[in-house]
Amino acid sequence: MSANTPWTIFQKIGFRFFFIYTLLFTSPFPLNIFDFLSNIINKIDEFIWLNLVPYIGENILNVFIDSSGSYRFTGSGDTTYNYVQIFCYFLIAVLGTLIWSLIDRNRKNYVKLLRILVVFLAYFLIFSMFSYGFYKIIPLQFPVPSLGRLVQSYGDSSPMGIAWTFMGASKAYTMFSGFAEVLAGLLLIFRRTRTLGGLVCFGVMMNIFAMNMCYDIPVKLFSFHLLLFALFVFMQDWKRIFAVFFTKAATIPRSFPQYFKKRSFNIIATILKVYIVSWFFYVCISQAMSANESYGPNAPKPYMHGIYDITHIEKNKDTIPLLITDDTLWKRFIIQRESYIYAYQMNGDRVNFKLEFDTIQKSMYMKKRSDSTDTYDFTYTLKDSILTLKGTHLNDTILIKAKQFDLKKFKLINRGFHWINETPYNR
């Protein structure tokens, strides 16, 4: 688009709104990815929105949001807070567009500012694609199905739980999804491949957005905006692409002029670009590797990790019949995470306990997370996959015997991959 081509009033107003809204949504990027700036930038960002969002929610939308500053990240990006925040972006963008239109109403176009916005959004997408991509290449976002998931029935799974199990069950497919995201990010780095990068990113994000919508995964708002930004980057070249596929008009190779007239400025810009992209790689890969060591596939498994099916219970030296109708009894317990144990009752309900091991004294202390007075104090022995627990619960003596389940018996684990299938193995 020529710098001398006049824009219509609707193009100028639309660009002003989109520019302001985009900066609001992406803030405080990219300042928050640099360690020496992230703390203070994030605190300023939180201070602004933790005061503004509850005020707008209560006074305009009649929605109560805790204004004490106790809002915390829950893993969901689709909270009431997030939706009200999007509404705040919209209001500020409308007001900003009105003021901008009054002050700058005689400007012919925003071609230069558009180029800057495209570059900015490309870098925002690059970082987002790298972040999510490397967390799939190293299977962190979708880990292998947990022990609790393996014993859970399909009917008791949430749609999101099914999606996480589906992705985590195949490391190869998860890595393929990650490579697709990283590829989109790589293509967005260079101007000559940026249009293709926008198209690849749009395709990747379309699949992710559809998955979020169809499986009720609470990243709908963020994935929709990434989808929108990818389309925006791709559509900068829509006329040429339309001409190639749908008309007989000749198209000439696109030129890529330098951003600045002075050669020194362009050298500085190139150095800055290399630094920023390298930093993106470093941050995303180092975070993924660190997470891999702390809770990913390379993280050490907790002591006595496994599923234990209860075969015998004694209370005050009386044998308790293991009746499936007795909801007070446990049928199994799982040690999946460090310092936690999950006991499953006969009706399938899960009870969470904090767990402390003393491997020298061979003792384990369990405290119910929802009731700190509900405790178990056991000594244990584990021999030939048989776990024996002896101890006390409140004023009662307890003896429990449980057999460690062989995880290789799960079809989700032992089925593997087959080039040849004479019949579908759909179980």
From TrEMBL:
Transmembrane regions: 13-34, 46-64, 84-103, 115-135, 172-189, 196-215, 221-238, 264-282
Annotated keywords: Membrane, Transmembrane, Transmembrane helix
Annotated signal peptide: none
Naturally occurring in which organism (per UniProt): Kordia aestuariivivens
Protein name (Swiss-Prot/TrEMBL): DoxX family protein
